[in-house]
Design brief:
Helix content is 77%, strand content 0%. By secondary structure, the chain is mainly alpha-helical.
Length: 475
């Protein structure tokens, strides 16, 4: 009986592998242009022993290899940029200035929840070979996928406004105010074509660029942390003791909204497909998921530390002061300069360099996400540069209008950024619910489908955050 049971289990695995492979081949025929062409994908090396084991047992998972982890490193750091964009920096500095260290615990747990959601997105992309937008187009009726597409575009435009404005503010600071916001917006508008140029030289070159930008942010904000010398005990208590002050509810909602961004869920489910994975083999899929999980965890740890640095700098320098309520991206550098002075490396310009790195990197990934969303939902068969131009135009037109309207109004621009962060938190269900539904379906995921307990836990946490944000808005 035991032998028969084992044989039946092997037969079931083979049928499941064939079903997944057939599904992937069918989608290949339907789509002329996938997230990544075969020539663009990074080949994961397989030694002879692994190749032999693969054919003996499709569920065989090779042992851990540092070399393979390096080959899988890249997509997680591109994904982590959404946790470090100017909207996040706006939320961080306002949380620190208005709430002090008290929201650090929320920053930490929102990052953990963001990691869990991104791992589900990667699970969908790795196990099926298709990203979230493609699955939505295939699984849902026309009206549903149109609603999901419009909500994804709406959230992306809101995030893109923050990212482009952040870059424009940084350029304004670095040019001593000679470059107005609208001009900085136009300059940033064309940065999206950098990644198209780098893509021609390979995905790894693009990932290296983002590694440099993240390193620039880390160094800039670590320098600011060293200059301001926040108190270690208060920082530790802020991480360990959950509390939200009555006057900081808006900042709490903003922290969640600017960390868990809807378009980033679509993005990461596509980014993981840049690695060549044999989705017909259960063991290979599991191996890829293991490396993706490690890399995503490392990437979001780095992003959490950068967000922590920014929050504590402004908590130490401005919490309890008269200027705390007036802090925003546009004037934060000037306040830092006034409080901590110039020196050999003026803190104003250090702040601007970090902000520029955040804005430039997130602008490019935003365009990347827009391409996957548009191509996935609408199944567009057009040139990449043209699709990038269309995607970029959706955000640039409203951003130029915002820059012209709020160029001389710091208070209104900061208030707009706060509301855009809240908008992100309100848009999360339109990406999260389809993701949870898809990764829990066995006919899509096979043995990699998540259980009901896992699914309901995430939905309850999201519902709680949604009720908190709604209660603040209507109060």
């Amino acid at each position: 009986m035991a032998g028969k049971s084992a044989e039946e289990e092997r037969t079931g695995l083979l049928l499941e592998d064939e079903s997944r492979q057939a599904r992937s081949q069918r989608l290949d025929l339907e789509l002329e242009e996938r997230a990544y062409e075969s020539s663009q994908r990074v080949q994961v090396e397989i030694d002879e022993q692994e190749e032999e084991e693969k054919y003996l047992d499709s569920s065989y998972t090779p042992p851990f290899s540092w070399r393979k982890l390096w080959r899988f490193t890249g997509p997680g750091f591109l994904m982590s940029i959404a946790f470090l964009d100017p909207g996040n920096l706006e939320g961080d500095l306002q949380a620190g200035a208005i709430a002090g260290y008290s929201l650090l615990w929320l920053l930490m747990w929102a990052t953990v929840m963001g990691l869990v959601i991104q791992l589900l997105a990667s699970r969908l992309g790795v196990a099926t070979g298709c990203h979230l937008a493609e699955h939505c187009r295939e699984e849902y009726p026309l009206w549903a996928r149109l609603v999901l597409w419009l909500m994804a575009e709406f959230a992306l435009i809101g995030a893109d406004i923050q990212e482009v404005i952040g870059s424009a503010i940084a350029l304004n600071i670095l040019t001593n105010g000679y470059l107005p916001l609208w001009a900085g917006v136009l300059i940033t508008a064309f940065d999206c074509f950098i990644f198209l140029l780098l893509e021609n030289y390979g995905v790894r070159k693009l990932e290296a660029l983002f590694g440099i930008l993240i390193g620039t942010m880390a160094l800039s904000f670590a320098f600011m942390f060293g200059e301001t010398k926040p108190k270690g005990m208060k920082l530790l208590m802020g991480l360990l003791v959950p509390r939200i002050n009555k006057n900081a509810v808006k900042q709490a909602v903003s922290v969640v909204g600017c960390l868990i961004m809807p378009h980033n869920i679509f993005l990461y489910s596509a980014l993981v497909q840049s690695r060549m994975i044999d989705t017909s083999r259960k063991g290979r899929v599991q191996e890829a998921l293991n490396y993706v999980s490690i890399e995503a965890g490392l990437a979001l740890t780095v992003s959490f530390m950068i967000n922590l640095l920014v929050t504590t700098v402004f908590a130490k320098g401005f919490y309890g002061t008269e200027t705390a309520g007036d802090m925003g991206l546009l004037n934060a550098g000037a306040y830092l300069q006034k409080r901590y002075g110039g020196g050999l490396f003026p803190i104003l310009y250090i702040w601007a360099i970090g902000l520029l790195a955040a804005g430039q990197s997130s602008t490019i990934t935003g365009t990347y996400a827009g391409q996957f969303i548009m191509a996935g939902f609408l199944n567009l068969r057009i040139k990449k540069w043209l699709r990038a131009l269309i995607t970029r135009s959706f955000a640039i037109v409203p951003t130029v209008i915002v820059a012209l309207l709020f160029d001389s109004s710091e208070g209104k621009l900061d208030q707009l950024n706060e509301w855009l962060n809240v908008l992100q938190s309100m848009q999360i269900p339109f990406a999260l619910i389809p993701l949870l539904c898809l990764v829990s379906k066995e006919h899509i995921m096979g043995t990699f489908a998540i259980g009901r307990i896992y699914k309901h836990f995430i939905l309850h946490v999201q519902a709680l955050a949604h009720r908190i944000s709604r209660s603040w808005i209507f109060d």
